[in-house]
Specification:
The complex is a heterodimer.
Chain A (H helix, E strand, L loop, with lengths): L1 E2 L2 E9 L3 H11 L3 E2 L12 H24 L6 H4 L4 E3 L1 H8 L2 H36 L16 E8 L5 H7 L4 E8 L4 E8 L3 H10 L3 E2 L8 H28 L4 H22 L2 E2 L3 E9 H14 L2 E6 L11 E2 L8 H7 L10 H16 L2 H17 L4 H24 L6 H9 L17 H29 L3 H26 L4 H21 L7 H25 L2 H20 L5 H43 L17 E3 L7
Parallel strand pairs in A: 4-13
Antiparallel strand pairs in A: 1-12, 2-10, 2-11, 3-10, 5-7, 5-8, 6-7, 9-10
Helix pairs in contact in A: 2-5, 2-9, 5-8, 12-14, 12-20, 12-21, 13-14, 16-17, 16-19, 16-20, 16-21, 17-18, 18-19, 20-21
Chain B lengths: L2 H39 L4 H9 L3 H16 L12 H38 L4 H28 L3
Helix pairs in contact in B: 1-2, 1-3, 1-4, 2-4, 3-4, 3-5, 4-5
Classes of the chains: A alpha+beta, B mainly alpha.
Chain lengths: 656, 158
């Protein structure tokens, strides 16, 4: 159980078999390959790798575009990330078509580019037409320069003006027409005889006149028409391209396949680049869990000429960690992973915490109705969908937590809060008392608080016991005893005294508690400073340890009061929801409102409290339990494997 | 019947849900602002930051819990209203103070810690859980305050 024992593997084989062997290792997914630092002879595969990467990103881009124009209908199964299963021989068949698929990807991207370009062109045309709109009244082209005897000047003044005031500023023989005018701008058409053209231009410049610039020899309204024609052509083109992309969605499966296929090829060449080579052989170094050693060796030796050697890793080796636990504990592995993988000297904390994880989770949520919902929901999801291993484990964890919640809820008599009592009272006119199998926390919170502290002490003692075991196994037997015994004595001795503040404690317990506590304190002060050399250091080391133990364990134990607080919060909010639902006097209204409020309210309450229970259970494990024995800092086992996004091979993985 | 006692008790219940609620609202709002920034860049992180945003929400629930416990005890909810002396009313008012005041400040502080956790989610999504735990540390003190409030309410003789 717990941390799998790792072996170092050294594999030497013929160079000609290298690609096939790597492919086999990739599919088995049980070997983590180390980069070979002393290169026997360098190989250059970087260009191949970047080629694969380029193709892969092309296919991925095409898939993204498909997603925009022809969104995939997704079921819940896709949403929780299931991959399609593919037979190995089907994979080979599809791999032959990779050129065709890349062409399709290219076509999708090309069509998309046309669409974006056309859209940009349309926007530009729209801006141009908008500007031309104010020149619409002009019936000569904007680049009209005049006739044989006259000159035409077209442009605008950056303010409001009328034709008389403009003509007044200009020499004789000028005729000004206002095309359009606004507060910011006056667009004018000016006709004058060629002789006064220069003079007129000078005068206009004084008035900050800006000539219009347009290269097309068409009238503004003609131009506007032209642009709108061009736009509708472009629109047509966009629709065509979009349709083409939508047609190509039949190839979506192939594209996904290409993305995965190219990723696999790339990974394979990545590994190849890290191998050591001689002229005819290659060397591969890595780590492998001990339990796969034999089966892998058999398989490789049956197919290829290989030399495989397994050795035990030395202390300096950076050995990766792979966890394996019983069916009961393994769903909680993700919680361990979230904190940190176990380091070299650590034990796997998963089996230590799994029981308490489920227990505390259920106690914090503590509503049988909610537990039932979790149990049914997760069971259906597990049955209905083909799930990835990690998702499956998470769901199983929540299923187990749901069972625990159901049990605690039944003990506390809480089914969707007090819905049984509410329905009995409001609709049947019967007063139903408590249906708790044990007791209702709301009526006696102190009792539950004491149980919460009691469970907390057990939880902490478990952590201390693990640390005892670790020291003992390392051969530091005296340390093991002296580090844990005083803590047990102090906590056990102080517990009855502390409990007596809240409730009546039998005198016999108190009379045992006091001397036990004192003995523990004396033992702790006398022994904790043993590593210090001077007498002075020993004494103060002991006092310091006493202070640490007292404040640390007091805080830790009080922290378990969250078991009570979160449980009460769930129950009381559930009761409020039921109360709101039964406010109207009329029986029919009451029933309708209750159904609506019940569904909405309890969904929200379940969601909030599920999150609360999850976070605070994690916290109790990480902060209170792990601090007693666990440091973490290990590296997770990262084997060479088929790292695919969409497809999954249908074949026995010895890894699972 | 001494109505001042009852009024004081009701003010207490109101304070519990008021201040703890304000604390939570501020905290949740603070994290929401940070979370929206992350989601605008990467919408896939929505569910991860949503968990962080909900964390400072519990203080409001504790305030509500305290208020309900008080209202039940004084018979406003589900039962006949009991007679309270002015001293008893003040006791209820006092009982509401721990969760009211600690709820207010811890809600805001937890919001800050969770907003910083949103930063972890943005840069290193795989360490998201650590941000959650750090924010959850703040909540311990709200829980302790809630505990004191509950213990007092439970032990006031009416």
């Amino acid at each position: 159980m717990a941390k799998l024992k790792m072996k170092k593997i050294e594999l030497i084989a013929l160079l000609t078999d290298s690609k096939k062997i790597i492919e086999l290792l990739q599919r088995r997914g049980v070997v983590e390959i180390c980069r070979n630092e002393e290169e026997l002879s360098g190989t250059n595969v970087t260009s191949i790798i970047s080629e694969f990467e380029k193709f892969r990103s092309t296919a991925a881009q095409a898939l993204d575009i498909l997603g925009i124009y022809a969104p995939e209908k997704t079921g819940i199964a896709q949403m929780i990330g299931s991959r399609t299963e593919v037979e190995k021989h089907a994979f080979g068949r599809e791999a032959m078509q990779i050129d065709r698929i890349m062409n399709i990807a290219g076509e999708i991207i090309r069509n998309n580019r046309i669409i974006t370009d056309s859209e940009a062109q349309i926007a530009q045309n729209n801006i141009k037409s908008d500007t031309l709109e104010q020149w619409k009244k002009l019936d000569v082209p904007l680049d009209f320069k005049g006739t044989a005897a006259t000159s035409a000047i077209i442009g605008s003044l950056p303010y409001m003006a009328d034709s008389d005031s403009i003509e007044a500023e200009l020499p004789e023989g000028c005729f000004c027409e206002i095309i359009s005018a606004s507060k910011e701008q006056t667009n004018i058409f000016l006709l004058c005889s060629k002789t006064v053209f220069e003079e007129a231009m000078n005068a206009l410049r004084m008035m900050s006149f800006i000539p219009v610039s347009e290269s097309e020899s068409k009238t503004p309204s003609e131009l506007i028409k032209l642009y709108s024609q061009e736009n509708s052509d472009l629109q047509q083109k966009i629709v065509e391209c979009e349709n083409r992309i939508i047609e190509l969605q039949t190839e979506r499966k192939q594209l996904k396949f290409a993305v995965d296929y190219l990723q696999m090829r790339k990974d394979k060449y990545d590994v190849l680049s890290s191998l050591g080579f001689t002229e005819t052989t290659f060397v591969l170094n890595g780590y492998i869990p001990e339990k796969y050693c034999e089966s892998l060796q058999k398989e490789l030796e049956a197919k290829y000429t290989v030399f495989i050697e397994y050795t035990d890793p030395s202390d300096e080796d950076d050995v990766p960690v792979l966890l394996e636990n019983s069916r009961f504990s393994s769903p909680v592995e993700s919680i361990t992973r979230m904190y940190a993988m176990p380091g070299k000297k650590d034990v796997d904390p998963t089996p230590v915490m799994s029981f308490f994880y489920y227990l505390f989770f259920g106690m914090m949520l503590s509503d049988a109705g909610y537990g039932l919902v979790m149990l049914i929901g997760t069971t259906i999801a597990l049955k209905r969908f083909k799930l990835e291993e990690s998702m499956k484990k998470t769901l199983i964890m929540f299923r187990n937590c749901g069972i625990s919640t159901l049990i605690w809820g039944a003990l506390f008599g809480s089914w969707f809060g007090d819905i049984v009592q509410v329905i009995g009272k409001e609709f049947c006119g019967k007063q139903i008392g408590s249906i708790a199998l044990w007791f209702e926390p709301m009526n006696d919170p102190i009792k539950l608080l004491l149980y919460a502290f009691g469970l907390g002490i057990l939880h902490l003692f478990l952590g201390v016991a693990v640390s005892f075991r670790m020291s003992w196994d390392e051969g530091r037997k005296l340390d093991a005893v002296l580090d844990t015994l005083p803590i047990y004595m102090i906590v056990l001795g102080a517990a009855p005294l502390g409990a007596s503040i809240l409730t009546d404690v039998p005198a016999i317990l108190k009379s045992i508690g006091t001397p036990l506590l004192l003995a523990g304190v004396v033992l702790l002060v006398l022994t904790s400073g043993r590593s210090s050399k001077s007498l002075f250091g020993k004494f103060f080391g002991g006092l310091y340890a006493l202070y640490n133990t007292a404040t640390g364990y007091l805080g830790d134990i009080l922290s378990y009061s969250r078991l009570l607080a979160l449980g009460l919060a769930t129950g009381s909010i559930a009761s409020v929801i039921n109360l709101i639902g039964t406010m109207p006097q009329n029986l029919v209204f009451k029933a309708i409102l209750l159904v609506i409020v019940f569904i909405v309210g309890h969904t929200v309450n379940l969601a909030i409290n599920l999150l609360g229970a999850y976070v605070h259970t994690d916290r109790l494990q990480f902060v209170e339990l792990f601090s007693k024995f666990y440091t973490g800092g290990g590296r997770e086992f990262a084997p060479l494997t088929v790292n695919t996004k969409y497809i999954k091979f249908k074949e026995e993985k010895i890894n699972e | 019947m001494n109505s001042l006692g009852l009024a004081l008790a009701i003010i207490g219940a109101a304070c519990a849900s008021l201040f703890a609620g304000i604390g939570s609202a501020k905290g949740v709002g603070l994290v929401g602002e940070a979370a929206a920034g992350v989601v605008s860049v990467d919408p896939n992180k929505f569910s991860k930051v949503l968990i962080l945003q909900l964390l400072p929400g519990t203080q409001g629930l504790y305030g509500l819990l305290t208020a309900i416990l008080m209202l039940r005890k004084i018979g406003i909810l589900g039962g006949d209203t009991v007679d309270l002396s002015t001293a008893q009313g003040l006791m209820f008012l006092g009982a509401a103070m721990p969760i009211a005041i600690v709820g207010l400040f811890s809600g805001i502080a937890q919001g800050r810690a969770a907003a910083a956790g949103v930063g972890i989610t943005a840069k290193k999504p795989e360490h998201n859980g650590k941000g959650i735990i750090m924010a959850a540390m703040v909540e311990t003190y709200a829980i302790l305050a809630l505990l004191v409030s509950i213990l007092i309410i439970n032990n006031i003789a009416v």
